[in-house]
Design brief:
two-stranded antiparallel sheet; disordered C terminus; about 60% helix; single chain; mainly alpha
Length: about 220
């Protein structure tokens, strides 16, 4: 057993000893995420939906660390197996979607927010993946609870965390999101406006705080003399 796997097993065991939403549990799981990401030992594929599958894997494994069985495999093997399951689902879903229609790349209201695209120079693949993974982890963990507390029309199930997951980076069409949440025509019309007004600023603020994008504030106009 190498040192990485030994540390990961210890962290998962410690995480399982704490209550589900306790800071101690989240701290251990965040350290698991950091060590695994740093090791670059996870399975990789050059497919558009890789980061979506990766996010789903991390969400599932961090919510269910008790499912890891140290007698069967290494921690990274467990993570890889879960990641490959989700990649297969995304692959099958993408094929079915391509048969029905062209994949929608723009929202009904304006250009979607592209965090990596706001970098001052075209990034290499590795830094871009690190930025993407860090952003996806922030969305999934929502450490300050701001995303979950920002609600659309007082509906707890439609918050900024849920919406950003669907719009970043996969850009799920608004029509599909509206159907998923059973929105009325009026609510479906207002949802993209809520996202642009409430959710995107939170995503941008995270990018600015991490130094991923520049904080470009509009200069105030000088009054005419």
């Amino acid at each position: 057993m190498d040192n990485l796997d030994k540390n990961l097993r210890q962290l998962i065991a410690e995480a399982c000893s704490y209550p589900a939403k306790s800071p101690q549990r989240q701290q251990r799981l965040s350290e698991v995420y950091r060590l695994v990401t740093k090791s670059r030992k996870l399975w990789r594929e050059s497919v558009p939906y890789y980061n979506d599958a990766l996010q789903e894997m991390w969400e599932f494994c961090c919510q269910n660390p008790e499912l890891y069985d140290p007698s069967k495999c290494r921690v990274t093997t467990w993570l890889d197996d879960e990641l490959k399951k989700r990649l297969r689902r995304w692959r099958d879903g993408t094929r079915r979607q391509q048969q029905r229609q062209m994949y929608a790349r723009k929202s009904e209201e304006g250009q979607a927010f592209d965090l990596v695209g706001h970098l001052p120079a075209r990034p290499d693949v590795e830094p871009a993946l690190e930025i993407m993974n860090a952003t996806l982890n922030w969305i999934a963990t929502d450490p300050e609870g701001t995303l979950r507390k920002t609600l659309f029309r007082k509906r707890a199930d439609i918050n900024c965390q849920a919406l950003i997951r669907r719009r970043f980076p996969s850009e799920t069409p608004w029509k599909e999101i509206a159907a998923e949440f059973n929105l009325t025509p009026s609510e479906a019309t207002d949802l993209p406006k809520f996202y642009n007004r409430k959710c995107l600023p939170l995503l941008r603020s995270f990018g600015v705080a991490q130094g991923y994008i520049e904080d470009r504030k509009t200069p105030k106009r000088r009054k005419a003399q």
